[in-house]
Amino acid sequence: MGSPENLLAQPVSEAGRAGLATLLARPAEAVVALDFDGTLADIVPDPEQARAHPGVVRALARLAPLLRAVVVITGRPAETAVRLGGFADAAGLDHLVVLGHYGAERWDAATGRIEAPAPPPGVAAAAAELPALLADTGAWRDASVEDAIEAKGGRAVAVHTRRTADPQGTFDRLRAPLAALADRHGLIVEPGRFVLELRPPGVDKGVALTSYVREVGAGAVLYAGDDLGDLAAYAAVDALRAEGQAGVLVCSSATVGEGAEELADRADLVVPGPQGVVELLTGLAEALARP
Ligand SMILES: O=P(O)(O)OC[C@H]1O[C@H](O[C@H]2O[C@H](CO)[C@@H](O)[C@H](O)[C@H]2O)[C@H](O)[C@@H](O)[C@@H]1O
Predict the structure, then answer these.
(1) Within this chain, do residues 113 and 207 fall inside the same structural domain, yes or no?
(2) Which of 35, 37, 42, 268 is an active site residue?
(3) In a shared domain, residues 232 and 112
(4) Are residues 149 and 266 both part of a single domain?
(5) pTM of this prediction?
(6) Whose CA is nearest to atom 15 of ligand 1?
(7) What is the Cα–Cα distance from 101 to 194, expressed in whole angstroms?
(8) Is 195 in the pocket of ligand 1 (CB under 6 A)?
Protein backbone atom coordinates (compact mmCIF):
# COMPACT_ATOMS: atom_id res chain seq x y z
CA MET A 1 0.00 0.00 0.00
CA GLY A 2 1.29 3.49 -0.82
CA SER A 3 1.62 6.49 1.45
CA PRO A 4 -1.44 8.76 1.97
CA GLU A 5 0.04 11.28 -0.50
CA ASN A 6 -0.11 8.65 -3.24
CA LEU A 7 -3.92 8.56 -3.01
CA LEU A 8 -4.02 12.22 -4.07
CA ALA A 9 -2.99 14.26 -7.08
CA GLN A 10 0.46 15.69 -6.43
CA PRO A 11 1.07 19.48 -6.34
CA VAL A 12 3.39 20.71 -9.08
CA SER A 13 5.59 22.82 -6.78
CA GLU A 14 7.99 21.79 -4.03
CA ALA A 15 6.23 24.15 -1.57
CA GLY A 16 2.87 22.63 -2.48
CA ARG A 17 4.14 19.06 -2.02
CA ALA A 18 5.65 20.00 1.35
CA GLY A 19 2.37 21.72 2.34
CA LEU A 20 0.29 18.67 1.45
CA ALA A 21 2.69 16.33 3.26
CA THR A 22 2.44 18.47 6.43
CA LEU A 23 -1.36 18.62 6.20
CA LEU A 24 -1.49 14.82 5.95
CA ALA A 25 1.06 14.30 8.72
CA ARG A 26 -0.47 16.81 11.16
CA PRO A 27 -4.14 17.24 10.22
CA ALA A 28 -5.10 18.44 13.69
CA GLU A 29 -3.08 21.61 12.94
CA ALA A 30 -4.54 22.15 9.47
CA VAL A 31 -7.18 24.50 8.10
CA VAL A 32 -8.91 23.87 4.78
CA ALA A 33 -10.31 27.14 3.41
CA LEU A 34 -12.63 27.25 0.41
CA ASP A 35 -14.18 29.83 -1.85
CA PHE A 36 -17.88 29.27 -2.73
CA ASP A 37 -18.86 30.19 -6.34
CA GLY A 38 -16.81 28.27 -8.90
CA THR A 39 -15.11 26.21 -6.18
CA LEU A 40 -17.91 24.60 -4.15
CA ALA A 41 -20.72 25.62 -6.53
CA ASP A 42 -20.77 25.37 -10.33
CA ILE A 43 -20.98 28.68 -12.18
CA VAL A 44 -24.52 29.31 -13.49
CA PRO A 45 -26.02 32.34 -15.31
CA ASP A 46 -28.32 33.39 -12.43
CA PRO A 47 -26.44 33.86 -9.11
CA GLU A 48 -29.56 33.01 -7.09
CA GLN A 49 -29.72 29.58 -8.78
CA ALA A 50 -26.19 28.57 -7.69
CA ARG A 51 -26.03 25.61 -5.30
CA ALA A 52 -23.22 23.66 -3.65
CA HIS A 53 -22.13 20.89 -6.00
CA PRO A 54 -23.67 17.51 -5.01
CA GLY A 55 -21.18 15.82 -2.71
CA VAL A 56 -19.79 19.02 -1.15
CA VAL A 57 -21.59 18.73 2.19
CA ARG A 58 -20.80 15.01 2.49
CA ALA A 59 -17.13 15.51 1.59
CA LEU A 60 -16.77 18.42 4.04
CA ALA A 61 -18.58 16.48 6.76
CA ARG A 62 -16.10 13.60 6.36
CA LEU A 63 -13.07 15.88 6.32
CA ALA A 64 -13.90 18.52 8.93
CA PRO A 65 -13.72 16.28 12.03
CA LEU A 66 -10.20 15.20 10.99
CA LEU A 67 -8.82 18.76 10.78
CA ARG A 68 -8.34 21.80 13.00
CA ALA A 69 -10.98 23.66 11.01
CA VAL A 70 -12.82 24.13 7.71
CA VAL A 71 -13.81 27.63 6.65
CA VAL A 72 -15.64 29.01 3.61
CA ILE A 73 -14.46 32.49 2.54
CA THR A 74 -16.74 34.11 -0.01
CA GLY A 75 -17.76 37.37 -1.64
CA ARG A 76 -21.38 36.40 -1.01
CA PRO A 77 -23.23 37.53 2.10
CA ALA A 78 -22.65 34.82 4.75
CA GLU A 79 -26.40 34.08 4.91
CA THR A 80 -26.52 33.50 1.13
CA ALA A 81 -23.56 31.11 1.10
CA VAL A 82 -24.98 29.15 4.05
CA ARG A 83 -28.38 28.89 2.32
CA LEU A 84 -27.09 28.05 -1.17
CA GLY A 85 -24.50 25.69 0.30
CA GLY A 86 -26.98 23.80 2.51
CA PHE A 87 -24.52 24.22 5.40
CA ALA A 88 -26.95 24.95 8.26
CA ASP A 89 -27.54 21.99 10.61
CA ALA A 90 -25.50 19.64 8.40
CA ALA A 91 -24.27 16.64 10.39
CA GLY A 92 -20.49 16.76 10.76
CA LEU A 93 -20.33 20.48 10.00
CA ASP A 94 -21.13 21.68 13.51
CA HIS A 95 -17.93 23.79 13.65
CA LEU A 96 -18.02 25.15 10.09
CA VAL A 97 -17.36 28.89 9.76
CA VAL A 98 -18.46 30.96 6.76
CA LEU A 99 -16.77 34.34 6.30
CA GLY A 100 -19.03 36.37 4.00
CA HIS A 101 -18.52 39.65 2.13
CA TYR A 102 -14.76 38.89 1.81
CA GLY A 103 -14.50 38.51 5.60
CA ALA A 104 -16.69 41.39 6.77
CA GLU A 105 -19.37 38.96 7.99
CA ARG A 106 -19.09 35.71 9.92
CA TRP A 107 -21.46 32.78 10.40
CA ASP A 108 -20.64 30.07 12.95
CA ALA A 109 -22.42 26.73 12.66
CA ALA A 110 -21.94 26.27 16.40
CA THR A 111 -24.27 29.19 17.19
CA GLY A 112 -26.16 29.59 13.90
CA ARG A 113 -25.61 33.34 14.25
CA ILE A 114 -24.16 35.90 11.86
CA GLU A 115 -21.88 38.68 13.08
CA ALA A 116 -21.98 41.65 10.73
CA PRO A 117 -20.97 45.29 10.99
CA ALA A 118 -23.45 48.07 10.23
CA PRO A 119 -24.26 48.44 6.50
CA PRO A 120 -21.51 50.56 4.95
CA PRO A 121 -22.49 54.08 3.94
CA GLY A 122 -22.42 54.63 0.20
CA VAL A 123 -23.76 51.28 -1.00
CA ALA A 124 -27.42 52.33 -1.09
CA ALA A 125 -26.58 55.61 -2.85
CA ALA A 126 -24.39 53.87 -5.44
CA ALA A 127 -27.04 51.17 -6.01
CA ALA A 128 -29.67 53.86 -6.67
CA GLU A 129 -27.58 55.27 -9.52
CA LEU A 130 -26.93 51.90 -11.18
CA PRO A 131 -30.11 51.29 -13.25
CA ALA A 132 -29.75 54.55 -15.17
CA LEU A 133 -25.99 54.10 -15.60
CA LEU A 134 -26.44 50.55 -16.96
CA ALA A 135 -29.35 51.49 -19.23
CA ASP A 136 -27.21 54.26 -20.76
CA THR A 137 -24.59 51.72 -21.93
CA GLY A 138 -27.12 50.13 -24.32
CA ALA A 139 -25.74 46.68 -23.38
CA TRP A 140 -29.01 45.57 -21.81
CA ARG A 141 -31.15 45.48 -24.95
CA ASP A 142 -31.58 41.67 -24.77
CA ALA A 143 -31.30 41.30 -21.00
CA SER A 144 -32.86 42.95 -17.99
CA VAL A 145 -31.00 45.65 -16.05
CA GLU A 146 -32.74 44.44 -12.88
CA ASP A 147 -31.44 40.88 -13.39
CA ALA A 148 -27.92 42.25 -13.78
CA ILE A 149 -27.90 43.92 -10.35
CA GLU A 150 -27.32 41.75 -7.28
CA ALA A 151 -28.24 43.59 -4.07
CA LYS A 152 -26.08 41.52 -1.68
CA GLY A 153 -27.93 42.41 1.50
CA GLY A 154 -27.17 46.14 1.30
CA ARG A 155 -23.46 45.67 2.16
CA ALA A 156 -22.33 45.61 -1.48
CA VAL A 157 -23.89 45.68 -4.92
CA ALA A 158 -22.75 43.62 -7.90
CA VAL A 159 -23.27 44.14 -11.63
CA HIS A 160 -23.28 40.91 -13.66
CA THR A 161 -22.56 40.96 -17.41
CA ARG A 162 -22.81 37.19 -18.04
CA ARG A 163 -26.36 37.47 -19.38
CA THR A 164 -25.65 40.28 -21.86
CA ALA A 165 -24.99 39.61 -25.57
CA ASP A 166 -21.29 40.48 -25.12
CA PRO A 167 -20.27 39.62 -21.51
CA GLN A 168 -16.58 40.53 -21.86
CA GLY A 169 -17.17 43.68 -23.92
CA THR A 170 -19.81 44.94 -21.48
CA PHE A 171 -17.55 44.11 -18.53
CA ASP A 172 -14.67 46.07 -20.12
CA ARG A 173 -16.87 49.09 -20.97
CA LEU A 174 -18.30 49.25 -17.45
CA ARG A 175 -15.02 49.18 -15.55
CA ALA A 176 -14.28 52.92 -15.75
CA PRO A 177 -17.80 54.26 -15.05
CA LEU A 178 -18.29 51.83 -12.17
CA ALA A 179 -14.87 52.74 -10.72
CA ALA A 180 -15.90 56.42 -10.84
CA LEU A 181 -19.27 55.63 -9.20
CA ALA A 182 -17.57 53.58 -6.47
CA ASP A 183 -15.06 56.34 -5.84
CA ARG A 184 -17.79 58.96 -5.43
CA HIS A 185 -19.37 56.85 -2.69
CA GLY A 186 -16.23 55.71 -0.84
CA LEU A 187 -16.37 52.18 -2.27
CA ILE A 188 -14.00 50.00 -4.31
CA VAL A 189 -14.66 47.81 -7.36
CA GLU A 190 -13.98 44.08 -6.93
CA PRO A 191 -13.77 42.41 -10.37
CA GLY A 192 -14.71 38.76 -10.83
CA ARG A 193 -16.07 36.37 -13.44
CA PHE A 194 -18.23 38.71 -15.54
CA VAL A 195 -19.07 40.63 -12.38
CA LEU A 196 -18.02 44.02 -11.04
CA GLU A 197 -18.87 44.46 -7.41
CA LEU A 198 -19.01 47.79 -5.54
CA ARG A 199 -18.06 47.15 -1.94
CA PRO A 200 -16.41 48.89 1.01
CA PRO A 201 -12.60 48.85 1.27
CA GLY A 202 -10.64 47.50 4.23
CA VAL A 203 -11.13 43.76 4.03
CA ASP A 204 -10.27 41.05 1.53
CA LYS A 205 -9.98 37.27 1.51
CA GLY A 206 -6.28 37.47 2.42
CA VAL A 207 -6.94 39.50 5.56
CA ALA A 208 -9.84 37.17 6.42
CA LEU A 209 -7.78 34.00 5.89
CA THR A 210 -4.71 35.17 7.83
CA SER A 211 -6.82 36.33 10.74
CA TYR A 212 -8.73 33.01 10.84
CA VAL A 213 -5.54 30.90 10.62
CA ARG A 214 -4.07 32.87 13.55
CA GLU A 215 -7.33 32.66 15.52
CA VAL A 216 -7.39 28.84 15.41
CA GLY A 217 -3.59 28.52 15.75
CA ALA A 218 -3.20 26.51 12.54
CA GLY A 219 0.23 25.45 11.24
CA ALA A 220 -0.91 24.38 7.77
CA VAL A 221 -3.48 25.76 5.35
CA LEU A 222 -4.95 24.56 2.07
CA TYR A 223 -6.83 27.26 0.13
CA ALA A 224 -8.98 26.56 -2.92
CA GLY A 225 -10.44 29.27 -5.16
CA ASP A 226 -11.32 30.05 -8.75
CA ASP A 227 -11.59 33.82 -9.22
CA LEU A 228 -9.68 37.10 -8.99
CA GLY A 229 -11.00 37.78 -5.47
CA ASP A 230 -9.10 34.67 -4.37
CA LEU A 231 -5.71 36.11 -5.31
CA ALA A 232 -5.58 37.97 -1.98
CA ALA A 233 -5.96 34.61 -0.20
CA TYR A 234 -3.22 33.14 -2.40
CA ALA A 235 -0.95 36.02 -1.35
CA ALA A 236 -1.82 35.33 2.30
CA VAL A 237 -0.83 31.65 1.92
CA ASP A 238 2.44 32.75 0.26
CA ALA A 239 3.11 35.09 3.23
CA LEU A 240 2.34 32.31 5.74
CA ARG A 241 4.71 30.00 3.85
CA ALA A 242 7.41 32.68 4.05
CA GLU A 243 6.93 32.58 7.84
CA GLY A 244 7.55 28.82 7.80
CA GLN A 245 3.96 27.57 7.79
CA ALA A 246 2.81 24.86 5.40
CA GLY A 247 0.48 25.84 2.56
CA VAL A 248 -1.20 24.41 -0.52
CA LEU A 249 -2.78 26.57 -3.24
CA VAL A 250 -5.55 24.88 -5.20
CA CYS A 251 -7.25 26.33 -8.30
CA SER A 252 -10.71 25.15 -9.27
CA SER A 253 -10.70 25.61 -13.04
CA ALA A 254 -14.49 25.91 -13.23
CA THR A 255 -14.58 27.65 -16.59
CA VAL A 256 -11.71 28.62 -18.87
CA GLY A 257 -11.08 32.28 -19.62
CA GLU A 258 -13.21 34.85 -17.79
CA GLY A 259 -10.08 36.62 -16.56
CA ALA A 260 -8.96 34.33 -13.73
CA GLU A 261 -6.04 32.59 -15.51
CA GLU A 262 -3.49 33.99 -13.02
CA LEU A 263 -4.93 31.73 -10.35
CA ALA A 264 -4.19 28.57 -12.37
CA ASP A 265 -0.67 29.84 -13.09
CA ARG A 266 0.05 30.38 -9.39
CA ALA A 267 -1.66 27.23 -8.04
CA ASP A 268 0.18 24.18 -6.71
CA LEU A 269 -2.69 22.02 -7.85
CA VAL A 270 -5.36 22.62 -10.51
CA VAL A 271 -8.54 20.56 -10.27
CA PRO A 272 -11.45 20.46 -12.74
CA GLY A 273 -14.08 22.68 -11.08
CA PRO A 274 -16.28 21.87 -8.08
CA GLN A 275 -16.42 18.18 -9.03
CA GLY A 276 -12.62 18.11 -8.81
CA VAL A 277 -12.75 19.94 -5.47
CA VAL A 278 -15.18 17.33 -4.10
CA GLU A 279 -12.82 14.58 -5.27
CA LEU A 280 -9.86 16.33 -3.62
CA LEU A 281 -11.71 16.81 -0.31
CA THR A 282 -12.90 13.19 -0.39
CA GLY A 283 -9.39 11.98 -1.22
CA LEU A 284 -8.00 13.95 1.73
CA ALA A 285 -10.62 12.48 4.07
CA GLU A 286 -9.87 8.95 2.82
CA ALA A 287 -6.12 9.42 3.12
CA LEU A 288 -6.48 10.77 6.67
CA ALA A 289 -8.89 8.04 7.74
CA ARG A 290 -6.46 5.29 6.72
CA PRO A 291 -4.84 3.55 9.68
O1 LIG B 1 -16.13 34.63 -3.52
P2 LIG B 1 -17.08 33.79 -4.31
O3 LIG B 1 -17.80 32.79 -3.48
O4 LIG B 1 -16.42 33.15 -5.50
O5 LIG B 1 -18.14 34.82 -4.88
C6 LIG B 1 -17.75 35.74 -5.93
C7 LIG B 1 -18.97 36.20 -6.71
O8 LIG B 1 -19.67 35.03 -7.06
C9 LIG B 1 -20.96 35.12 -7.64
O10 LIG B 1 -20.83 35.41 -9.02
C11 LIG B 1 -20.24 34.35 -9.75
O12 LIG B 1 -21.11 33.20 -9.70
C13 LIG B 1 -22.41 33.39 -10.33
C14 LIG B 1 -23.22 32.13 -10.09
O15 LIG B 1 -22.57 31.01 -10.60
C16 LIG B 1 -22.20 33.72 -11.81
O17 LIG B 1 -23.45 33.92 -12.44
C18 LIG B 1 -21.31 34.96 -11.96
O19 LIG B 1 -21.03 35.20 -13.33
C20 LIG B 1 -20.00 34.77 -11.19
O21 LIG B 1 -19.25 35.97 -11.20
C22 LIG B 1 -21.82 36.12 -6.90
O23 LIG B 1 -23.01 36.33 -7.60
C24 LIG B 1 -21.11 37.41 -6.59
O25 LIG B 1 -21.92 38.22 -5.76
C26 LIG B 1 -19.84 37.07 -5.83
O27 LIG B 1 -19.16 38.25 -5.47
Answers:
(1) yes
(2) 35
(3) yes
(4) no
(5) 0.96
(6) 43
(7) 18
(8) yes
